[in-house]
Each structure stands twice: as C-alpha cells, then as structure tokens.
Amino acid sequence: MIAKSYQIRAMRKDRRVSLPRTGFWLLVFSYLAFCVSDMMLSIQDDNSQMVKIVAFMALGLAVMLRPKFHKRILLVGLLLFVFLIAIGRSFNVAAGVDELQRFVFPIAITLAIYAYKDRINSLASIFLIVVISNDIFQCYFYLAYVTKLPLIVPVRIDSGLYLRAQGWIGFFSEFGFMNFCALVICAIKGGDAAGKLRKTFFLIFALLSFSFKLFVIILFYPIVFRKTGWKASVAPLMIAVIVLAVFISGYLDDIVGLASSKVAFYITAGNSARAESYRVMWESLSGGNFLGEGLGAFGGPASVKFNSPLYSKYHFDWYGMGGILKTTDTFYPHLFVELGLLGGAIWLYLVIMYGQRDVMSRAWIFVTCAFLFDNLFSLAILSPSYVFSAFLVLYVISQSRPTEKDGCSLDGRYRDKDIGCYKYVSWEKSKKFHTGNIHRGASRINQEDKKLPS
C-alpha cells in the first residue's frame, strides 16, 4: 500500500515536470513557425498566414500548460474595455477584427515568454542558433549571387547600389535587428575570447543589413556597454571600413545622395506616407481622440484593404504610392489614431513593461529605446518574430538578477555596475566571493563580541 502511494506521487511529479517541458517546446515551435511564416511571406507564399495561425495556437497552448502571470495582467481587463470601444467605433467590423488580432499578438508573446522565464537561457540559446543559421545562409546567398546559383529568397538591392543582407528569413530590417539582439545577449553574458568573436560576428552581419536605423542604434552600443580603448572603436571602425570600400568602388556620392534623400523624404521635407501619418496622428489627438477612432481605421493593412474613410477625412496624401503601399509603415500613428491617446498608452505600457523588473539598467533602456525607435519608421512591433526577438532580450536582461543584493550569487553571477545587469563568472570566483563574505562576517561578529561588556 505504501509502495503504491509512492508510485502515485512519483507519477504526479513526472506529470508536473513534463507539462512545463512540453509547453517550453511548444513556445520554441511557435517562434520557429513565426520565422518560417516570415520567410514564406518574403517569397509571397499564400500559406504564410496559415503557418502564423498554427504558431499562435501553439503559443496559446504553451501558456495554458503553464498559466503563470505577472501582476500587470490586470491591465488586460482595462485594455479589453478599450478594444470593445474601438471595435464599436470601427467603420467595418471585419476590418476591426482583422486589426484586433495584430494588437493581441505582441501581448500573447510576452505572456508566453514570461510564463517560461525560468528557461529564458535555453530560449536565448535557441534564438542564437536561429540567428547563426540566418548568417550562414547569408554567406551562401552572397556566393550564390556571385556564381548564379539558385536563390531561395528574392534579392534586395536598394536603389541599385548595395545588396542588403536578409538571411533566409527574407527581411533585411528583421535580419539586422535579430543580429543586434544576439550581439546584446553576448555582451550581457560576457565570456572568453570565443564570446568576443561571437559579438564581432553578429555585429558584422547586423551592419550588412544596411539598415540606416540600426546604424544609428549601434553607434550608441560602446557608450551603453562602457567599451574603452580599441573595443570602443570596433563598431565605428567597421562602419568606416564599409564607407571606405564604397568610396573606392565609386559609389560614395550615390549613397550619400540616397541617404540625404531618405532623410528629406521621411523627416525634413515630409513628402512621404510616413510623414503624412504623423500629421494625421497630431490632428487626431489634438482633436480630443482619447479612446480611438476605431480598429482598422488607419495605418494598418486592414485600413487599406477595406478602404477606411479616415484617409479622405484627413486628406491623406499617398504621394503617388496609394496603389502600391499596403500600410503607412509607421506604428505610432496606427496605434494612437485607432486606440486613442489613453488606449494607445495602456497598450504600449502593457506590451513593454509586462513581466519586466530590472528596468532601470542601461542595457534594458538601450534595447527598449532601440525597439521603440525602430517603430518610428516601421510596423515592426506587429511582426511576431520581430517582437519575439526584442522581448526575449528584454527578459534576458530583466531576469538576470542574483539572489544577493550586491556581488555574486551562488549560481555564478555577478553585478556588472557598468551596464546595470548581470554577467556569468566561474564557480571558483563565485565560491571565493561567498567564502570571503563568510570570513568577513565571522570576523565582524568576533569584533562585536569583544566590545560587549563581560
């Protein structure tokens, strides 16, 4: 009878252990499926949406197998109220539902990663493998492009001047940001010479994406991570080498002209759909838009697909790209026009802050600002695989906290005061730290005992 009781307890324990493990692999599967979906989208495969739906079903099942939530989950109730109002004000219910799922995707991803935060290092390792596979494929892509071998993804040559690295995932901006996230993870974890080599590897491929937004972000990397001496000059030196190579090839004037035209096109001159989007956002918010003008009304794919009347209301100028663009390719106007000032602020706070704890570290602030800056000129935050990369790094930084207030913990981590997060050290160093603390503590107690009156 006793043996049978122990057997039942063991079976229950095995079941409890197996469920989180199954959920974790469902989470991994969903991330890989998101990446495959993006690759299929880049080659215009109509089944990409179906793969994405399967990925979110796996994501939901992973959360159900381990329903662990942060206290900020209470904001979901308030956000549901905002969504109901936005659906009610939508000009077309189908457009509203179509856009609603895009706003739910990032929330679902951060809920799932938080539920498995204790396995964040394993998840980060799988992410690094995916990034490396993209980089290896990019090497093949360069070789195939030169030797006329078969290419899986289409070639991206910006303005006929330079070939943008995009990996097998098929999007140069996402490829560059993934390598940037991998670079930050390696910088946080620290390591030996191999770790430094990996950082250089990811930095090179991030720059090869030729994403001008990413160039701006990487320039701040040495400042945030307190690189000194020759380490501080690695990123600027690589950019200088690229500029020199371009100069030697005779394309420098063309690229400078292209960069100037992009700045004028998107920022200074304001003669693009992106610049127009910010004008519409300003007019909408200044008119008292607190709870939104309706889901699917502006900026996203649904607004173009269902021909939203807001484009006529605000006299939106597509600058000749009306029949080509499927979105305005800017996130914040899309968010704040559809959900309003209050609704947009609640959504953004929940998505960025859910489950985060070490939010005052420079590394966390740097990655968050980089992600938010990227969305000034894109809809990246609505791309599942893109969002997964960003949130994963934020959780790696936020969850890397030791059990001690200062110094090392018993799992071999120490506080890096330069970047405000934790690096891993050897067990010997960690043991030495704790042994030293014990001896110092014992010595202090002995001294206090001597001061006591007999």
Automatic annotation (TrEMBL):
It comes from the Bacteria. The chain crosses the membrane at residues 21-43, 49-66, 73-94, 100-116, 123-145, 165-188, 200-224, 230-252, 331-352, 364-397. Keywords: Membrane, Transmembrane, Transmembrane helix. The keyword 4Fe-4S does not apply. This is Uncharacterized protein.
